[in-house]
Structures are given as C-alpha cells and as structure tokens.
C-alpha cells in the first residue's frame, strides 16, 4: 500500500507563485522517480515534471524556466516550485510515484490538488 499526500494548491493571480509538496508513505521497496502531472477540464493528463532518485529531471516544455522540481529523498517528499504562473497553468495537479513493492513495479497517484490562476 502506498499513500501520497499532496498540499500547496490554491488560487493565485497571474504572475504569482505557489509551491506544491507531496509526501509518500507505505510499503514500497524503492522509489524510481516522483513527479507531477496535471489535468485541466476537458484535457488529458500531462506530465509537468519528474525527478528520479538519481536526480535526473524532465520538464514539460510549457513550464521550463518557470517551474522547479526538487526532492528530499530522506523524507520521500517531492516539491514543485511554480513561478510566473499563467491562467493556462490552471489544473488539478497530481503527484505520481514510480517505484517497487517487492519486485513489482507500478505507478501510484495522489488525490490531486487544485491550482487556479486567475485575476
């Protein structure tokens, strides 16, 4: 069983900043990567950013230069610092963990935290 607890969403004006955090707990053997996806109404879920246990990072082109992902391996926590937010960043943001329970590799999801960018 894996649980992901997200926090940090909210309402912010265009140009503002928010920081999301996600902490994982449970019986996983190892974490391969943690990251964030988002889904706007009527749209497909898309990758925002991902960081591996070794520190490799991938960003969506739409957030490069504005968002920063970081991770505290000791706390099993991943952060997403979001700056210069735009209305098109409005979405439900989901934390994802890629990891192993025993020998089984799987993807786990949080419940989502809403980010709304509006004046």
Tertiary shape: elongated
Low-confidence stretches: none
Q: Which percent range describes the beta-strand content?
A: over 45%
Number of DSSP strand runs:
11
Task: From the structure above, extract its key features.
119 residues; 4-stranded antiparallel sheet; 11 strands; single chain; 7-stranded mixed sheet; mainly beta; 0% helix
Commentary on this structure:
With about 120 residues, this protein is an all-beta fold. It is built from no helices and eleven strands. β4 and β5 form a beta hairpin. The chain is elongated, with a radius of gyration of 14 Å.
Summarize the model shown:
With about 120 residues, the protein is an all-beta fold. It contains no helices and 11 strands.
Topology:
Elements: E1 2-7, E2 10-12, E3 18-26, E4 30-39, E5 46-52, E6 57-59, E7 67-72, E8 77-82, E9 91-101, E10 104-109, E11 113-117
Parallel strand pairs: 2-11
Antiparallel strand pairs: 1-3, 3-8, 4-5, 4-9, 5-6, 7-8, 9-10, 9-11
């Amino acid at each position: 069983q894996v649980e992901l607890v997200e926090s940090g969403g909210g309402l912010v004006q265009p140009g503002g900043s928010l920081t999301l955090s996600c902490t994982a707990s449970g019986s996983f053997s190892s974490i391969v990567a943690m990251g964030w996806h988002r889904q706007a109404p009527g749209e497909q879920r898309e990758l925002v950013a991902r960081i591996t246990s070794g520190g490799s990072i991938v960003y969506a082109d739409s957030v490069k230069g504005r968002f920063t992902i970081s991770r505290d391996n000791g706390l099993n926590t991943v952060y997403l610092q979001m700056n210069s937010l735009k209305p098109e960043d409005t979405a439900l943001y989901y934390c994802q963990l890629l990891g192993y329970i025993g020998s089984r590799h799987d993807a786990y999801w949080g419940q989502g935290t809403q980010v709304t960018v509006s004046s």
